Amino acid sequence: MKALVVADEVEERLWTSAVRNHRADLVIGAGDLPYDYLEFLAGALDVPCVFVPGNHDPDLSGYTRYGGLSMKDGFPTVWPGPAGGVNADGRIVDVGGLRFAGLGGSVRYNDGPNQWTQRQQARRARRLVRRARLRRLRDGRNVDILLTHAPPRHCGDREDPPHRGFDCLHRTIELLRPKWLLHGHIHPHGEPVPDRVVGGTTVRNVVGHRIMEFV
Asked: Does the pTM exceed 0.90?
């Protein structure tokens, strides 16, 4: 399984037919990208797309989809997310043969969407772990990738309030034991960004784009 993994920075050369030069079976989005960009990438490559929203993305809460029909508050409506994309935020989803656990958003720093206090995100993370356990009881499969927008605290984050990571992700990694945690939110600005290892999980900043192969 080879994936085009993107976050935070639109790369104009990918927003053309040249993206087809990349061989990928899946598009993974870690937040803060235009939804039509994700939609274009998945459509051009003719592959599935899984994503979590970032703190600059529109609020997708409250939307449900049944048989291709999008609903909110009991009424049909247009879903603002990428057509065909799977929103993993707060969910356990299987896409392209991989199992994802998703936690989108950043630490709260103003009144924008997809922002959470440390306590709120910790509650969301606990619910996510419970859902993962139930799925594992049913089919015996573990989570392959923990897909987040913000990183774990003190694991490649920054000290300014908007870019601090989430404390709860350390406990989430410990309980889910995914092979990977993929995140965006922290722009390297030309600096090298080494992978970090927490327990047995590799934490990778995917701002911009990465081509990754999952075994």
From this structure: yes
Task: Kindly list the averaged pLDDT for each block of 10 residues, start to end, along the chain of length 215.
Answer: 96 94 95 96 97 95 77 84 93 96 97 95 98 97 98 96 97 98 94 92 97 93
**CATH value at residue 194:** 3.60.21.10
- With contact defined as beta carbons under 8 Å apart, do 145 and 100 qualify? yes
- Cα torsion 148, 35, 99, 157 to 10°: value is -10
**Domain housing 40:** 2-213
The residue type at 179: K
Query: Which CA distances in Å does 114 have to 2, 26, 38, 106?
Result: 28, 24, 18, 7
List phi, psi (to 5°) of 158.
-125, 170
Q: Number of folded domains in the chain?
A: 1
